Amino acid sequence: MASERSFFTNGYALSSPAFTLVGLIALVPVLQLFASAFWSFTTESYTLANFTALLDSKMATQAFWRSIRVSLCVTVVTVLLGYPLAMGLLRAGSRMQSLLLTLLVFPLMVSVVVRAYGWLVVLSPSGVLNKLLLNLGIISEPLSLIHNEAAVIIGESQLLLPYMVLALVATLQKVDPSLEEASLSLGANPLTTFFRVIVPMSIPGLLSGTLMVFSLAITAFATPLLLGGGRTPMMTTLVYSFAFTTFEWDKAAAVGIVLAVLALFFVCVQRWAAKVGLKSFG
Amino acid sequence: MIGMSQANNYAAERMMWSASRGLLYLTILAGYIFLLAPIFIVVVASFTNDNYLLFPPKEFSLHWYYEVFSLSWFRSALLSSLVISVISTTISAAIGIFVARALARIPFRGKALVELVVLSPLLLPSVVLGFALFNFAVYFAIENNNFINLVAGHVLITIPFVVRSVWAAMAGADVSLEEASMSLGATPAQAFRDVVLPMARPGIIAGCILAFTYSFNDVTLSIFLAGSNTTTLPVQMMSHIETSGDPSPAAISSLMVGLTMIFFVIIAKTVGLKIFTDR
Amino acid sequence: MSSIEIQNLSKNYGEVTAVRDACFAAEQGSFVSLLGPSGCGKTTTLRMIAGFEDITSGDIKLGGKSIKGTPPWRRNIGVVFQSYALFPFMTVLQNICYGLKMRGVPKNEQLARARKVMEIVGLHEMENRYPRQLSGGQKQRVALARSIVIEPEILLLDEPLSALDAKMRDEMRFELKRIQRTSGVTTIFVTHDQEEAFALSDKIVVMNKSVVRQVGTPREIWEEPNSEFVAGFIGVENLLPCHIVAEDGRAFGQFGSHRLETDAKHIGKQGEFVLGIRSTDLVPLADNGQCGQNNTICGEVVGEVYTGEANIYQISSPMSDKPITVKTRRDHRLSGSVCLAVDPSKVMVLERG
Prior knowledge:
Chain B is mainly alpha-helical.
């Protein structure tokens, strides 16, 4: 654009308000958190003590492995349910497709608290499921279905399933439908075709979906708090209880940093995979 | 004879595949039930008349809705949630539209850094951001200014929604429209007002709605910033769920689902559902 | 309205050169086409004239004054875009009045001027329609009206006919010429379609690979293309690399032991050139006995296509690696060995490349 500079054509001027604001009130506090995680109030020096204290704490190491375990299970559940839903979405006629898409993405906008509460209503000892089973005479005592890892896995899977489906659909809808027809015409039955043609073609989507679901699962907060209860702390809820129950802020900072590093690692891997995936899959 | 038995074989095979197709449909149905049932059950159960939740309720009444609106904590938390979401969405929109314009249209050095910083609140776990902000506020001894802290935090988590949505809308608009307006004598400011903003309008609307919804529903960040002076509805609702077993959260949930539904329809009508599918 | 001069205009994007040293001019009220294949730099040239791209070096003079550094909104140049770029949220009338509004023209005058140009471009009772309610041809007319209502110094058209279907394109070609004559605005027209350029222009600027290859009237370009590229681009089928030799005051193209005579005016030329011969300028001789004499090409028919109005043959010949194309009337059929004669004045001598 020929000369006469204007605010509206200057990238720096346009970016500066948002850049400054986010930098100042998000990145500076995060850097400060980083510093305080390595700071010891007792010795008044930089140290790894906060992190070694976490390693020594049984609760913290348990929370760490629980977070990993739960997130892995959530990823597996969403993959297993994700493929059928993605295939259904891709195969449906256009009206059915928009209905299915609506029903898939609407829950994404509903509050996490509402969705976790929904599972409490369904799964709690006086909940819908227990009442149903009692009335049917299948059980005589209410089952304890909440405040355990399974409840968290169920809740987070419901939370994150749409992301997995969308990632799979995004990749699969670019696949030429005649590939599938070609496979069928060459003598492969539908199941063989699915595993030999569809699944390999969906790898980029599966990869990005898996990374996204895992990183969102490991950073989920409200669901583990409500469905996991006090006896199943995970990394995110541990930050909260260190901060507001035991007031061990240096430990909260250390757990937070571990969490942030994990989450950013997955973001980087995801971006890298997206780049590499784009190249190798044309 | 051979032909007959072969035909029979095909019929058997065909039946097997149509049975497996039925199984696929059942799985899909189960998947959607899994996604929607908890939301649906809460909404239906909220119309109960009793002091406990039952699905389906014995009789439908608005009892708990009257009850909820008579609770002072609900009214004040709802009000502050609305105010905080409106203010933070407005601020995010005001600064987000400009940075979206820069990202979508203007080549400059350091663009990748601007993108990274502006979208960083989405990349960082909310728990970490929430505790970092709390820690920061404590450092300056302003942790009791709950309202200001909440607005600041909500601006951070809403900016990425506005930026991504407006960015997509601006990048998708025909560049020659802007050039046409300039060739007709419009200065960059006039072209921005007359052409760029109207062209990005669906993206702006959708971005603001997503931002508002996300802000209004947020609990992870807010729980670190809320306090005795100001708190938000989801935070209050969460502590109520943890301490009491009455059905009032169901009524609040239904109200939130209703509000979400209205916003969802507006988004579907303005920019369509592709805003969820494109990334 | 003004004349425009393009002087040694260049545009680089980093290492890449989009336009190199372009020079041409458009007289006041004339219609000039920038013709070339896609990526040749014609659109970049147009965008520099409009002010959408900075100039790397050289100058653009509008009515004798340099407009280098003048931002687009102060140039008073009308632009019609390939996509028309009509504002979708404004009615036809609002689109046309937009430029006048930016100039602070009073409302009633805006209306009067808009109605006048709408009449010129042939838009009737469309004022309150939105662009999406218009056909391609109508959008085209609105885009034209919007850019001429501001009475621009110069009108720039960027492939404005390419988005139309074939029938509409022929109609709009006549309309464009009429509207340009009526309004008398100096016009620069970018196109890759040689037929369009010949039909509309007073002058054609042929570009290829960032460089202006030839500037001339349609007749000059058609009859005397200066290079292999220009000849090929305007559809000269037979391009035969050769060596030019002079003998007895005559000029010949030498192909090994064969030679073809060309016009004597090429006598000063020495070295490697390309001979260009249109397929219609090759005349098959009835008697093959004349073969081997000057200005005949002999060979075998190796391919035949019937197009309805003509027969097109491919002839293999020792003069060229590629077969030679010859076009005959549809009732004139060839087979086997043939001998083709060509008038020396119809043999063009072209720079290579």
